[in-house]
């Protein structure tokens, strides 16, 4: 304190000149410190500026990608959030360039990135308004902001913007800056850049814009939301005074295009500014001012096709996956690249096949009317409770719509099913809800009209805050405090609880049941040429459930050829190897049963496949080992080494998994497969064991025209050629006489197999010709609803849908390594006259060297007395003796070992001789018997003579006709 007093006294003793000098020194020190502080601050902010490539601004732009069909026709210009196409500065008309310069930065050609005059006027305006209302940004500043920075109004962002603007001006010419700006600027309605905007608002190229049109587009950058020439408005927000000029589809939703008067007022301001600055003369100004710009608006809908979103969504998903793999990024990042990277995606879709399938599927509802509703609805078996809800055991699958929804799709809960506590907690019986992991879903509803077609309504999850609701065993409890904050969540009407549809997801459009899906693949390339993911082929909803690629179902017997028969053939079995279709014991139980409710007995592999036996595949896989089946699934990536699959291993779940005979041999899996998985399998057999990568993408080009994805000639041998050929031939025979009898693709020679599971909830028809593989699924979305339709019904629908795919064609002749032999179906050995007589012979194909050498020894001829049912003896009269051919298993057959059940082919061969026609009987009746025998013989001779005479007469008549 003493020192401070002394300093004050000394300062007072100084003269005026000395005091001024000290004051100036202090101010200088403060100034230097301030400059140092702000310099450090600016350096710190600049150091955090994003990395930039100022010489290639275009690479930072989000460009629209294109999807092309197999024939190179544009299917869709992907309408991303930023819809943009690039255009060279020399192709942009001078009037278009001048219109933007005039209104956005009229000193553009004079400044070096920053406009001091503009900044000063901006500061004055901001001080006056006491806010950062006006930025005074130059075109260069706007460009670097949109490319590298955000739209945040902060001092740090403005400093970075100024720094980058100066750098851009050093690196690029004014024309290069203006080109980048005009290709980048946000011009509303998802259009980024002048070319995209010209297409969006006038359906023309920027090259063809006139002065009036250029001025309208130049009026937008100030506020794309407020100055877009039209606004896209959902139907629920339309007002009577709106001027609607059409509709456009965005993200699968129809939006109404409503003219925006503010945009046309600002257009006049732009024209006036161009005239003031001398960019246009008086005549041009008057002409542009009087141009009918409103009538000139001609919005373009960028979806140039009539295909369903099933095909285009499939292509986008595939393209996103390929981009993610190529750049080693996530699937979501791959999708972002597709939508914003300016790629050209060449799809494999054949427009003719796709449109033909869509037209047929559009009429599927009419097709259903041809089938019975005896099970409760067309093609389906339904079980109802007393309130007409559809149930599965004690579980409600679908509520009757009138039991759960009112006309406005609000949720209706009767008085006896809810209560409200004194604290305001809402308690609702849990039967209306199901736990869906992170959310609580409402059980779907249904309607069953006079046409007896089941229509279901999808109800989604409750939109409540996390922790506000808890689903317990018997009740859903919603917290009263939450309900106080959202008083419109529910109301009480006529004692019913009405939950507003604002608080849960729902779809007003019903889904027809059963559903169906289909994939058509070119065998030569593996390319998907047509795909249907459901019956709503004309839907406008994007990213809908594609049942061909996204639905996992129990494949049932559709899987068996690949997990049992093919491994058996590769292990040395032949199509003529015989197994016994009889009741067996597995894990101490009588299992499995056959869908045909019986047991057919001895069958070759071919005949077993045609009959779709369950017993024989289970027996074979027990013999081969389950690893053989799992190895086959690994080849198709159904079992993934990194566990990125839906195959439930024993490690995943010890109690319920797929490492068992029911899943591996019979296809009754815990989760199941997709139709696209089955398509890949059958396409591989159609190609004799070579898998052609199945995809909807032919190639993808990056914005520079480089091919980064090329899927042509992507082949991989998965199975032995010869074994695969045998299985292929078995499928061809199966179409003629097996479980897929009559399944045809466009009347061509076809190989086919029908798959069904133990719950009868799904039918799969997988078929192929020489050129195409077509896979088809039929079933209800809920696998707990079984099909009332017969397998032949599924085949008939398949035939209708597959007609028109490919040309009428036949398969090639057998390769040289295939030999044919006539064999016995009971022994698998070479046929004999006895097996022929018994109708048990057929022609089988073998790999050369594996054909049987021995003749059948099971069939033998027997003389049976029809009166005693025993072997005929020497005393049996001829009229009582029957000549027959029977077979007997070498090891015999004891029904006690098979639950007392006899197979269909069981034959009782008598071991003793007739005890009716004894010597005593013959001595007593012998003469009479001989007489009858002679008469019988005489009658036979007369009949034989008459036949010979008739033949002679017929032959004589034919000869006379020839002459």
How does this model look, in words?
With about 950 residues, this protein is of the alpha+beta class. A hairpin with a 2-residue loop joins strand 14 and strand 15 (about 440).
Q: How would you state the average pLDDT, rounded? A: 86
Low-confidence stretches: 129-134, 302-306, 936-963
Query: Given the C-alpha coordinates, what overall shape results?
Result: elongated
Share of residues in helices? 25-40%
Number of helices, where a helix is a run of at least 4 consecutive DSSP H or I residues: 29
| Classification by helices and strands | alpha+beta
Output the radius of gyration: 41 Å
Number of strands: 42
Largest sheet entry = 5 strands, mixed
Q: Please give the oligomerization state of what you see.
A: single chain
How is this fold's topology laid out?
Blueprint: H1 2-12, H2 16-47, E1 66-68, E2 74-77, H3 94-104, H4 116-129, H5 139-148, H6 155-171, H7 174-184, H8 194-202, H9 211-218, H10 224-227, E3 230-233, E4 244-250, E5 253-259, H11 261-276, H12 282-290, H13 293-296, H14 309-327, H15 331-340, E6 344-347, H16 351-362, H17 364-368, E7 376-377, E8 380-381, E9 390-392, E10 395-400, H18 401-404, E11 411-413, E12 418-420, E13 426-429, E14 433-436, E15 439-442, E16 445-448, E17 454-457, E18 459-462, E19 469-471, E20 475-478, H19 480-485, E21 490-493, E22 496-499, E23 504-506, E24 511-513, E25 515-522, E26 528-532, H20 560-570, E27 578-581, E28 585-586, E29 589-590, E30 601-604, H21 605-611, H22 615-624, H23 626-635, H24 661-664, H25 675-686, E31 690-692, E32 697-701, E33 707-710, E34 715-717, H26 721-737, E35 751-756, E36 762-768, E37 772-779, E38 786-787, H27 791-802, E39 818-824, H28 833-837, E40 841-847, E41 859-865, E42 881-887, H29 919-962
Helix pairs in contact: 3-9, 3-11, 5-6, 5-7, 9-11, 11-12, 14-15, 20-22, 20-23, 20-26
């Amino acid at each position: 304190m003493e020192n401070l007093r002394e300093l004050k006294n000394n300062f007072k003793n100084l003269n005026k000149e000395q005091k001024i000098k000290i004051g100036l020194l202090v101010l200088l020190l403060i100034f230097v410190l301030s400059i140092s502080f702000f310099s450090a601050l600016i350096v710190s902010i600049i150091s955090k500026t994003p990395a930039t490539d100022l010489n290639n601004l275009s690479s930072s732009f989000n460009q629209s990608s294109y999807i092309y069909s197999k024939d190179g026709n544009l299917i869709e210009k992907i309408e991303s959030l930023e819809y943009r196409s690039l255009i060279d500065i020399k192709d942009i008309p001078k009037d278009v360039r001048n219109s933007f310069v005039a209104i956005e930065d009229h000193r553009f050609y004079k400044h070096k990135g920053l406009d001091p005059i503009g900044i000063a006027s901006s500061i004055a305006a901001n001080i006056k308004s006491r806010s950062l209302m006006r930025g005074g940004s130059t075109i260069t500043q706007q460009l670097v902001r949109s490319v590298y920075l955000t739209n945040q109004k902060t001092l740090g962002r403005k400093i970075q913007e100024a720094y980058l603007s100066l750098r851009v001006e050093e690196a690029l010419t004014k024309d290069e800056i203006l080109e980048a700006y005009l290709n980048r600027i946000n011009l509303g309605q998802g259009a980024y850049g002048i070319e995209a905007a010209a297409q969006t608002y006038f359906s023309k190229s920027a090259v063809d814009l006139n002065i009036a049109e250029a001025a309208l587009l130049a009026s937008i950058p100030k506020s794309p939301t407020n100055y877009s020439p039209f606004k896209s408005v959902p139907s629920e927000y339309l007002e009577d005074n709106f001027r609607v000029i059409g509709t456009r589809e965005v993200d699968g939703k129809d939006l109404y295009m409503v003219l925006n008067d503010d945009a046309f007022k600002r257009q006049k301001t732009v024209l006036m500014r161009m005239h003031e600055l001398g960019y246009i003369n008086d005549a041009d100004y008057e002409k542009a001012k009087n141009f009918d710009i409103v009538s000139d608006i001609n919005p373009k809908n960028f979806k140039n096709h009539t295909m369903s979103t099933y095909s285009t969504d499939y292509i986008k998903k595939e393209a996103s996956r390929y981009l993610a793999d190529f750049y080693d990024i996530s699937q979501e990042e791959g999708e972002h690249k597709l939508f914003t990277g300016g790629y050209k995606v060449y799809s494999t879709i054949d427009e003719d096949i796709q449109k033909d399938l869509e037209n047929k599927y559009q009429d599927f509802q009419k097709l259903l009317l041809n089938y019975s509703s005896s099970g409760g609805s067309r093609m389906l078996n339904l079980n109802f409770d007393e309130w007409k809800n559809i149930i599965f055991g004690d579980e409600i699958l679908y509520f009757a719509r009138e039991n759960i929804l009112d006309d406005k799709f609000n949720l209706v809960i009767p008085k006896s099913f809810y209560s409200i506590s004194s604290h305001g907690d809402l308690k609702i019986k849990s039967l209306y809800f199901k736990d869906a992991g992170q959310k609580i879903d409402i059980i779907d509803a249904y309607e069953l009209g006079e046409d007896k077609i089941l229509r279901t309504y999808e109800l989604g999850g409750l939109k409540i805050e996390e922790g506000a609701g808890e689903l317990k065993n018997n009740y859903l409890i919603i917290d009263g405090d939450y309900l106080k904050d959202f008083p419109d969540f529910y109301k009480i009407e006529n004692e019913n609880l009405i939950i507003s549809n604002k608080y849960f997801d729902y779809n007003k459009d019903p889904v027809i049941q059963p559903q169906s899906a289909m994939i058509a693949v070119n065998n030569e390339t593996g390319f998907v040429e047509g795909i249907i993911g459901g019956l709503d082929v004309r839907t406008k909803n994007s990213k809908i459930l594609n049942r061909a690629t996204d639905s996992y179902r129990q494949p049932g017997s559709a899987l068996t050829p690949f997990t049992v028969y093919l491994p058996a053939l590769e292990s040395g079995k032949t199509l003529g190897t015989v197994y016994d279709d009889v009741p067996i014991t597995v894990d101490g139980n009588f299992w499995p049963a056959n869908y045909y409710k019986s047991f057919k007995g001895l069958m070759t592999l071919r005949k077993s496949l045609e009959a779709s036996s369950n017993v024989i595949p289970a027996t074979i896989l027990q013999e081969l080992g389950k690893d053989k089946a799992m190895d086959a699934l690994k080849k198709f990536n159904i079992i993934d080494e990194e566990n990125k699959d839906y195959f439930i291993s024993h490690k995943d779940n010890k109690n319920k998994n797929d490492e068992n005979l029911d899943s591996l041999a019979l296809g009754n899996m815990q989760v199941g497969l997709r139709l696209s998985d089955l398509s890949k399998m059958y396409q591989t057999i159609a190609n004799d064991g070579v898998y052609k990568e199945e995809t909807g993408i032919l190639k993808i080009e990056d914005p520079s025209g480089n091919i980064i994805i090329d899927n042509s000639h992507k082949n991989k041998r998965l199975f032995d050629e010869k074994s695969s050929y045998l299985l292929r031939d078995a499928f061809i025979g199966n179409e003629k006489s097996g479980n897929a009898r009559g399944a045809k693709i466009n009347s061509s020679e076809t190989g086919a197999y029908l798959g069904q599971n133990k719950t009868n909830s799904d039918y799969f028809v997988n078929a192929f010709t020489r050129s195409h593989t077509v896979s088809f699924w039929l079933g209800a979305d809920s696998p707990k609803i079984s099909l009332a339709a017969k397998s032949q019904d599924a085949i008939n629908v398949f035939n209708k849908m597959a007609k028109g795919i490919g040309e009428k064609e036949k398969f090639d002749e057998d390769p040289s390594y295939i030999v044919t032999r006539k064999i016995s179906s009971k022994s698998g050995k070479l046929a004999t006259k006895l097996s022929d007589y018994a109708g048990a012979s057929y022609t089988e194909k073998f790999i050369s060297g594996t054909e049987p050498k021995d003749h059948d020894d099971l069939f033998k001829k027997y003389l049976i007395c029809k009166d005693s049912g025993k072997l005929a003896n020497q005393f049996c009269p001829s009229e009582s003796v029957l000549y027959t051919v029977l077979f007997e298993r070498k090891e015999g057959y004891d029904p006690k070992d098979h639950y007392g059940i006899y197979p269909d082919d069981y034959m009782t061969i008598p071991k003793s001789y007739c005890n009716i026609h004894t010597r005593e009987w013959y001595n007593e009746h012998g003469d009479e018997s001989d007489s009858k025998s002679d008469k019988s013989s005489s009658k036979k001779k007369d009949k034989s003579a008459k036949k010979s005479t008739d033949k002679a007469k017929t032959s004589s008549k034919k000869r006379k006709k020839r002459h």
